Write a sequence for this structure.
């Protein structure tokens, strides 16, 4: 069963990364509008988030849920087989694909950890996800340039294999108590200051990635550069961040790392918009990938440090949702600007991150001063007595 799940992990993430790399290019070729790419991505993200929030409250048995998700995923590709040259098909298809991603993405890791007691199972999952995410855009750009007429049937066939594999699983156990506990945990997470403040920062930082997904492929295509090379550099350094950042966490405090990588993210995103050659694009892609991966690692480490153990799993899930929310906001927020200046989108996105960085620092500084003043006052009272 573990091998089947790992196949689904790789194929699902491969198709997802492939599609996100070339979707803006396809939409732009049909409509000749950069803004439309943002609108299609917004529909995709809204569909994804809707199903994720529903599942946060309503428990469904994982194997059954996985079947529903891969079927929806496959239907999105099937629609494009017949109507690949009509923009309405991409809006409708993005709903099917968004529902599929919203369901399948988180459920595969749950199925894998339930099916295997091997501690390396999560590592296998992460390595396959990174490999698929790095190689998917390469094949996507190749198919778009060389196999455009046959591209959609091939993608549908790959999706169909996921459906077949999903129906080879047996029945799982149903947990009726999950729905109620999730609702209580969601409220507790949102009301907890330790979670909520970092949740907001992660949301803002994910807007940068939303700009990358929705608008960078078009900008690079205009400059005769390839998005797949950018994603390759991005994902290689994203994986490296997962290796090296935990080591940095031993030497430096997590808030310090948070400031550092927010700064790295903001500077790199501003420069990416003006990368006119691979000599600049690839290093910036690597720096941005390392910064984004490092931030994700830091945020998850902050969650792990909070004492409420029973809320941690749902906090991880909610942080994952916020990454998608940020991507959706990034795609939609800058769509009016896309027709005027694609490069300016990345500059403004970086400026927003800088503002968040400064606000975060000021809030932390004020809180530290309050604690210091409180301790000094308490010390004075003790001395007076």
């Amino acid at each position: 069963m573990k091998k089947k799940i790992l196949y689904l992990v790789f194929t699902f993430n491969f198709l997802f990364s492939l599609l996100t790399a070339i979707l803006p290019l396809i939409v732009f070729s049909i409509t000749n509008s950069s803004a439309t790419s943002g609108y299609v991505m917004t529909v995709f993200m809204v569909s994804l988030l809707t199903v994720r929030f529903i599942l946060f409250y309503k428990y469904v048995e994982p194997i059954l849920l996985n079947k529903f998700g891969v079927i929806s995923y496959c239907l999105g590709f099937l629609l494009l087989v017949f109507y690949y040259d009509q923009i309405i098909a991409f809006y409708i298809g993005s709903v099917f694909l968004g529902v599929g991603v919203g369901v399948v993405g988180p459920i595969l890791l749950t199925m894998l950890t339930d099916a295997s007691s091997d501690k390396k199972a999560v590592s296998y999952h992460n390595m396959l996800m990174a490999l698929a995410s790095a190689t998917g855009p390469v094949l996507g750009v190749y198919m778009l340039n060389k196999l455009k007429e046959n591209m959609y049937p091939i993608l549908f066939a790959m999706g169909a294999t996921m459906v077949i594999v999903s129906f080879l699983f047996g029945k799982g156990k149903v947990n009726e108590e999950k729905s109620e506990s999730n609702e209580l945990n969601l409220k507790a997470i949102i009301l907890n200051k330790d979670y909520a403040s970092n949740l907001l920062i992660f949301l803002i930082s994910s807007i940068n990635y939303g700009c990358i997904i929705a608008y960078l492929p078009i900008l690079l295509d205009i400059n005769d550069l390839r998005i797949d090379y950018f994603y390759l550099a991005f994902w290689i350094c994203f994986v490296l961040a997962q290796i090296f950042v935990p080591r940095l966490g031993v030497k430096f405090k997590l808030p310090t790392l948070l400031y550092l990588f927010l700064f790295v993210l903001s500077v790199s995103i501003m420069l990416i918009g003006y990368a006119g050659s691979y000599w600049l694009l690839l290093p910036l892609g690597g720096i941005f990938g390392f910064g984004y991966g490092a931030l994700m690692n830091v945020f998850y480490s902050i969650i792990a440090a909070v004492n409420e153990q029973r809320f941690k799993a749902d906090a991880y899930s909610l942080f994952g949702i916020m990454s998608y929310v940020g991507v959706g906001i990034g795609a939609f927020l800058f769509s009016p600007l896309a027709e005027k200046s694609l490069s300016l989108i990345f500059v403004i996105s970086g400026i927003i991150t800088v503002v968040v960085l400064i606000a975060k620092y000021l809030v932390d500084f004020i809180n530290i001063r309050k604690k210091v003043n409180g301790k000094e006052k308490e010390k004075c009272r003790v001395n007076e007595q």
Observations:
- The mean pLDDT is 79.
- Residues 206 and 323 are 5 Å apart (CA to CA).
- The chain is about 85% helix and 0% strand.
- The chain has two domains: 1-169, 176-385.
